[in-house]
Amino acid sequence: MRKEEFLKRLEQNLVMDDPEKEEVLRYYAEYIEEAGQENEEKVIDEIGSPEEVGRRLSAEFSETEVADDGSWTVDFSEMIREFSSAVEQFAKKAWESAGNAVNAFGDRMEEGWKKSEPARNDAAADWTRTMQEVKKTTDKVLQETRETAKKGMDEARKAFTSLKDILEDTTVPYEFADFDLEPFHKVKVFVKNCPVVFHPAVDGKFGADVRLFLRREDEISVTVENDTLVIHSTASAGIGRLTGGAGGFGGQAAEIYLPAGVYETVEVTTTNARIEAAGLKLEDAEVKLKTGNAKIKLVNCLFGGSLQAETGNAAIELEEVSAPAAVLYTVNAPIHVNGGSIAALNMETSNGALNVADCAVASKLTAETANGPVRLKLTETAEIYRVTADTSNSAVFVDGRRMGPHYEAPGRIPVRANTGNARIELSFPQPEADAEDDDTQTEE
Amino acid sequence: MAFQIGSALLDACVLAVVDSRDVYGYELTAQMKNVIDVSESTLYPVLRRLQKEEYVLTYDSPINGRNRRYYTITAAGKQQLEIYRADWETYRRGIDTLMKGEVTENA
Questions:
Q1: Which residues of chain A are within 8 Å of residue B29 when distances are taken between CB atoms?
Q2: β-sheet bridge partners, residue A224
Q3: Are A292 and A270 in contact (CB under 8 A)?
Q4: Quick one: closest CA in A to B60, which residue?
Q5: How many CB atoms lie within 10 A of CB A380?
Q6: A contacts of B40 (beta carbons < 8 Å)
Q7: By three-state DSSP, how is residue A137 classified?
Q8: Neighbouring-strand partners of residue A335
Q9: What is the 8-class DSSP label of residue B53?
Q10: Is A329 left (phi over 0), alpha (psi -120 to 50) or beta?
Q11: How far does Cα B12 stand from its chain's mean position?
């Protein structure tokens, strides 16, 4: 073994302080060198194994216990004590510096807080001002709301009181005088989903028989303003009277009794409820009836002014109605005019039949539909009417005879009939025996 | 040899050698080995101990491009050596008396 290896292995087996280790290594290095290079291996042999030497010297120079088998146990307690102390010192310093940092931060916070005082005061003042404004506005709105509510309550109370009077006895029609209403010459009815039924005055009396089935949110008013009787209700099935045996909400209707010859205009609008009139004689009135999806039915009525009836998806039926002019309009339903006398009759629908039977038309008849048949049974003989009839995919029939898709005939009273996909049927009364010649011409 | 030399006796011997003249490690070991069976790994701790107790000092002397470490005795070392010598004399006489069969019942 050479010196270097010996010293290296010796060092690996020394358990002692570094300075002590250096002393040992220095001593053995010199010792081997003193023996001379030629004796190097010999002297190393004499010294013995570096492991053995290392263990012996370790036992001599360190506090480490070396057991007989060469193993040793190191007592770290002193090292731990020193380390603990160092840690404690470090922790103490860290704690102190953290404390200082916290204090410094606190100081800066306090400084910032002091510096921000004017700004905070301003903000607080602003906030207070804003809140005062908000409160003022809120108070005002509240006050207004209260007033409105009070007014509404007063009105409701008033309406309720008068309606309560109405409700006390519904079996006898009331005279409007009973309602303490001023005289009027116009009638305007708006009800949301409640049918409206007109009746003539009975025994010279007139009035409205109105019974309420109001829900909380519904309202109704019966007033006279600007010479007009206004009946207004947003009730869904509100104004009404249970007509004999019909029962339920479907039987309710606003039953309105009007005397003859008093009115200039009668207007009725409902959203989705039927409008009916029977035996009504309004010798000066223009009548406008409008509903969304329900039937308009007029029976035995006489109107001094023109009649307008408009609905959406339901039929219009006129029976024995007389008027100088009538405009009847619906969208997907038929129009029937039976009897009566309407000087100028104008009917229009898009997908429904148009039927006129025995209605005296003195000046003009127009019947237009897109997809339904047109049947016109006229009151005068054929030569009276100047007919223009067109259908695109069917034919015109005159008194049962097929005439093709287009038919024209000369005459005094214009009659115009148009449809898209259905037949047009025209029929006229058979001529008297003394007018046979004319009749022959007409038939051809 | 059947007898083991204790550490105090070794200390005394090494001090005595160093007292006669300054020596270096290899030289000391060689001298000691001429007389007793002792290894250098026994002597190094002795020298180190004497150093720590300040009975010997070391100094380095250059030779052939390297340093040779010499051990030299201090005043305290000399004083301690006298104590060892006295103790050894007492010890040796006692042992001799026993070994030579000169013990009397009154002694």
A1: 31
A2: A229
A3: yes
A4: A30
A5: 15
A6: 28, 31, 46-47
A7: helix
A8: A316, A354
A9: T
A10: beta
A11: 4
Distance from CA of A73 to the nearest CA of B (A): 21
Residues 6+ apart with CB under 8 A from A394: A405, A419, A421, A422, A423, A424
Q: Could B26 and A61 be called an inter-chain contact, meaning their C-beta atoms sit closer than 8 Å?
A: no
Class of domain B7-99: mainly alpha
> How far, in Å, are A159, A218, A410 from residue A146 at the CA level?
19, 20, 72
**B70 pLDDT more than 90:** yes
Quick one: CA torsion of A40, A45, A48, A49, rounded to 10 degrees?
90
CB contact under 8 A, A30 and B24: yes
B40 touches chain A (CB under 8 A): yes
Query: In this predicted model, what pLDDT tens digit does every residue of A394-412 receive, in sequence order?
Result: 899 999 889 888 999 998 9
The 10 Å Cβ neighbour count of residue B2 is: 3
The alpha carbon of residue A53 is apart from the nearest alpha carbon of chain B, in Å, by 6
Q: What residues of chain A lie within 8 A of the CB of B25, using their CB?
A: 27, 30-31, 34
User: Which residue, among A3, A6, A16, A23, would best test binding to B if mutated, counting the most B CBs under 10 Å from its CB?
Assistant: A23
Tell me the chain B residues in contact with residue A53 when contact means C-beta distances shorter than 8 Å: 41
What is residue B13's three-state secondary structure?
helix
Sign of the alpha-carbon torsion through A31, A33, A36, A37: positive
Q: How far apart are CA A228 and CA A60, in angstroms?
A: 132
Domain boundaries, chain B: 7-99
How many whole angstroms separate alpha carbon A268 and alpha carbon A259?
17
DSSP A144-186: HHHHHHHHHHHHHHHHHHHHHHHHH--SSPPPGGGGTPPP-SE
Query: What ipTM does this complex have?
Result: 0.86
Of B45, B66, B68, the CB nearest to A57: B45
What is the CB-side half-sphere exposure of residue B77 using CA atoms within 13 A? 27
Kindly report, residue by residue over A79-131, the tens digit of the pLDDT: 667 777 777 788 888 888 888 888 888 888 888 888 888 888 888 888 888 88
Residues in chain B closer than 8 A to A24 (CB atoms) = 44
**pTM, two decimal places:** 0.45
Pairing of strands B66-73, B23-24: antiparallel
